[in-house]
Design a protein that fits this description.
Length: 777
């Protein structure tokens, strides 16, 4: 007891309470600063703990220093040694003292402080404290260097190149092995809320994951395990966060893992404990903090996989093939896209959107209508399995490819765009639908919208120069063509096709011949090569070289018949008939008669003929019996499927046939069709011809001028040329001689190689008369 009392007296005597109080107060201040810096400067959460450990180590050091500097209990202080105060015990003058060990007199104690006293000094204590926090600073620097560069176990996943900043990360449903059935869902949702604000990653929305599950035909399954893997792959996520809630006595253990979607390897693991249910939220917060810290902010090397197309199929391999086909199609390689889609359909024969994509691809490769319609029909038949967006897309293409109900197609695509303004298929295909109504500006605006936003696609780029040209905006068409060729340098087919349409619209015969010949030489796609031959023939006609045009067109017929491509053969004859009508002899009947006499049409099933165009040409040529027979065969073969389109073609044919007997009545019938179809530019050339036959010159001039402003189809160039010849004649009849001379001059100059053609010769003669009259005047 006496010893304890003496120790207490010594503590008081040496002011250890004060020293301890000062040290603890200073330590509290230091800890507060560290806590603030940890929160504001983003220091690791172990920083306060390390600072506390260092301060606790400092407590015995400070106390030991205080004791040593005052002397141990029972000892005198350093200034109480005999002789040190300047006098000896007897008050006499001191003898010389030993100032350094090994020097002076050996019979006197050394005055040098002991090793302990030299070690535990306030100077050393302060230096030790500084060194301790220097160690803390060095640890922080080392940590951040390793964290930033991705070195060691603390390296963040971004710096390690595992994921990229902003990558989509899927949070899987946590497994629950506790007795509390709801705890797994609670942990999952709480962690989702915490991670939703993370800047380094983009957490996949639960609704997005559920949409993908619906596309997989597994809408009610939990997102974990292999299901989570497939959802992540479909959604383009780079990693999955998955975990488990387990029991540990009366508490809980929360574990989490970040796993790579690309190769399945574990990237990081985390563990937090909760003493009871009340501590679970704190454990979730800790888990969230651990995940955020490990994920990091700067992502580099391995990129997240591109998301797979969001379409309905339970087969991931089929979806991968479909996605690859879409990507290949974007490069213009339609043949390879077709192969991939066919392989996807072998895996999942009920993959509706693959059927639809196949129909589009078959159309682009020039396949027969039977194949494309079969694919379109299969997609439509499977539409009830689809999401609303997919269902409207499949329905729209079915109407385009099978029923011919243009307005049903437009309505379906517009519904898609109302909900999904950047949908690539809807933007491109609605533009095509508008082109069928000669709404070229509307079509071009949709494609401009597509190529300037996320709805950009190869099809949008490929169609844009066509619609700009057919709308009469040749400068915009040239820019669009340059954009296409720059963006898709390996897709010469579509660049040359667009270039041919533009050249024909501008009457650049040399460029048209060059582009047509290039289409003629495409390595894949025999149908396109035959199209190129017809393009060359039409190019010759634009300068009046009808002999070369006829020879080339007959060559196209021979080539098609040799390949038993009867549709292409028939189309070549119809093209020749229209060429004769617009820029040649003016008589379309001989080529059509030859087509009929060769029996080519009988080799093509009525439902797969190009009835829309061919029947109208037959009716315009006055071949009434043939036109009506083709209509009847078509209607029987369609079984009512194409009733809307058949009614439209029938009305047009009847209007043309009526025009032979009563041109004014025929013109009125066409005007009614225009109004019903909301196509004010449709049939402009034909309507102008009927008005001229009826002697209604002003109305005829109006329609001929409309033919100059914008075309209805790829015959825009020949229509414009024929319109100039007719306007010369009409203005002359109207007494507007300056306008007549202008249009005759344009026509004659363009048809420089067709001087022997009757219409060209007549135009030259009238122009000469008008020129002479102006000189005489």
């Amino acid at each position: 007891m006496n010893g304890l009392k003496q120790l207490v007296r010594e503590i008081h005597r040496r002011s250890l309470w004060q020293v301890l109080g000062i040290f603890l107060a200073a330590s509290w201040g230091v800890l507060q600063v560290v806590e603030v810096l940890t929160e504001t400067a983003g220091l690791p959460d172990w920083t306060p703990s390390m600072a506390l450990v260092l301060l606790l180590i400092g407590v015995p050091v400070v106390l030991a220093t205080a004791i040593v500097q005052e002397g141990m209990p029972g000892q005198t202080s350093g200034t109480d040694q005999p002789g040190v105060d300047g006098t000896g015990d007897d008050g006499a003058a001191p003898e010389p003292v030993n100032l350094a060990e090994g020097t002076g007199s050996l019979d006197r104690p050394s005055s040098r402080p002991s090793r302990t006293a030299r070690l535990f000094t306030w100077k050393n204590a302060i230096l030790g404290g500084v060194g301790a926090f220097a160690l803390l600073g060095f640890s922080l620097v080392a940590y951040f260097v390793m964290w930033t560069t991705g070195v060691g176990p603390v390296g963040n996943l971004q710096a390690q190149g595992v994921i990229e900043e902003g990558d989509a990360v899927l949070l899987a449903d946590f497994r629950n092995t506790t007795d509390d059935a709801a705890l797994g869902d609670v942990v999952t949702e709480a962690l989702r809320v915490d991670l939703a604000t993370a800047q380094a990653i983009t957490l996949v929305e639960e609704s997005a994951a559920r949409e993908i599950l619906a596309l997989m035909n597994r809408p009610d399954e939990a997102v974990r395990g292999t299901v989570a893997d497939e959802v992540a792959v479909r959604g383009g996520s780079s990693a999955i966060i998955e975990g488990e809630v387990g029991a540990a006595g009366s508490g809980y253990i929360l574990t989490a893992t970040i796993r790579s979607v690309q190769d399945g390897r574990t990237l990081a693991t985390f563990r937090r404990t909760a003493a009871d249910q009340g501590s679970v939220i704190a454990a979730i917060d800790g888990l969230s903090q651990d995940i955020r810290e490990r994920v990091g902010e700067s992502l580099r090397s391995i990129r997240a996989g591109e998301p797979l197309e969001q379409v309905t199929t339970p087969s991931l391999p089929a979806l991968r093939l479909y996605t690859e086909a879409r990507a290949v199609s974007e490069t213009g390689d339609q043949n390879r896209a077709q192969e991939l889609l066919e392989e996807a359909l072998r895996i999942d024969p009920e993959f509706a959107m693959a059927w639809r994509a196949l129909a589009v691809t078959l159309s682009n490769t020039g396949a027969g209508p039977a194949e494309t319609r079969h694919a379109s029909t299969r997609a439509y038949e499977l539409r009830d399995r689809l999401t609303e967006r997919e269902r409207y897309q499949a329905t729209a293409y079915y109407h385009r490819d099978v029923t011919g109900d243009l307005f049903a197609e437009i309505a379906a695509y517009q519904t898609v765009l109302d909900a999904y303004p950047d949908d690539r298929a809807a933007l491109n295909n609605l533009a095509i639908a508008y082109s069928n109504l000669a709404r070229w500006e509307d079509a071009a605006a949709l494609l401009d919208r597509a190529v300037s936003g996320p709805g950009a696609s190869f099809s949008a780029y490929a169609n844009r120069p066509l619609y700009d040209a057919l709308g009469g905006d040749f400068e915009a068409a040239r820019r669009s063509l340059a954009d296409l060729e720059a963006r898709y340098p390996g897709t010469e087919l579509w660049g040359n096709w667009g270039g041919w349409v533009l050249a024909m619209a501008e009457w650049d015969a040399d460029e048209a011949l060059r582009r047509g010949a290039a289409v003629q030489q495409v390595p894949d796609g025999a149908s396109w090569r035959r199209t190129g031959t017809r393009a060359v023939a039409l190019s010759y006609s634009m300068t009046g070289q009808m002999g070369a045009a006829r020879e080339a067109m007959r060559g196209a017929v021979t080539e098609a018949e040799r390949a038993e491509a009867w549709t292409d053969a028939a189309q070549a004859w119809v093209d020749l008939a229209k060429t004769e009508l617009l820029v040649g002899s003016g008589d379309p009947v001989p080529p059509l008669r030859e087509l009929l006499e060769r029996g080519t049409l009988e080799r093509i099933p009525p439902q797969f003929r190009s009835n829309f165009d061919w029947i109208q040409v037959m009716a315009w040529a006055g071949l009434e019996e043939e036109a009506r027979r083709m209509l009847a065969e078509w209607e029987r073969a369609s079984g009512g499927l194409e009733a809307t389109l058949i009614r439209h073609v029938s009305r047009v044919a009847e209007a043309f046939l009526l025009g032979f007997e009563d041109p004014a009545a025929g013109a009125a019938a066409i005007q009614a069709i225009r109004s019903d179809t909301q196509c004010e530019r449709c049939l402009a050339w034909e309507l102008g011809e009927l008005y001229e036959r009826a002697g209604m010159r002003d109305a005829a001039i109006r329609e001929r001028q409309r033919s100059l402003e914008a075309g209805q189809n790829f015959w825009y160039g020949p229509h414009r040329l024929a319109a100039h010849e007719a306007l010369g004649r009409l203005y002359e009849q109207n007494g507007q001689l300056d306008e007549a001379r202008e249009h005759y001059t344009i026509y004659v100059q363009q048809m420089a190689h067709g001087a022997s053609l009757p219409r060209v010769a007549a135009a030259r003669e009238r122009l000469a008369v008008l020129q002479t009259a102006r000189l005489v005047r």
